[in-house]
Amino acid sequence: MDGLDICSIGLPDLRLKLSIIPQEPTLFRGSVRTNLDPLGLYSDDEIWKALEKCQLKSTISELPNLLESFEENWSMGQRQLFCLGRVLFKRNKILVLDKATASIDSNTDAILHRIIEEEFSDCTVLTVAHRIPTVIESDMVLVMSYGTRSSRMYW
């Protein structure tokens, strides 16, 4: 991957180099801040910039305690955008989208893909998907059938 044989990297190191946006987004029990920055590494300004990129700034701005708000009723699309915000902070060179757009509306899907294209253009993005439109902008597509590669396509 990116000219590096991933078999030569230990599993713990490999895990540190990749970020995942899963089909079922996970939010932590806690504030908006905690969900975007669980380790408390970023300033308010950096968090607001990430929220703006993820199209969540206006929603969070309406909450009574802003970044310190505890909210549990996020839509699936909003949850995916929170996960995107987290990976924006990590800035790993490998991003895995594991059916990340399977349960979201087309508007959120477009937002997610636009941000990934803008922010991760110099990274390897692995997309696991069932729908052709989800992978149409990919440089290479591997078609899997019963756990093995059935074809490879480059555009």
TrEMBL record:
One of its GO terms (cellular component) is membrane. InterPro entries: ABC_transporter-like_ATP-bd (IPR003439), ABC_transporter_C-like (IPR050173), P-loop_NTPase (IPR027417). It holds the Pfam family ABC_tran. Keywords: ATP-binding, Nucleotide-binding. Coiled coil: none annotated. Transmembrane segments: none annotated. Signal peptide: none annotated. The keyword ATP-binding applies. It comes from the Eukaryota. PANTHER family: ABC TRANSPORTER C FAMILY MEMBER 8 (PTHR24223:SF108), ATP-BINDING CASSETTE SUB-FAMILY C (PTHR24223). This is ABC transporter domain-containing protein. The lineage of its organism: Eukaryota, Viridiplantae, Streptophyta, Embryophyta, Tracheophyta.
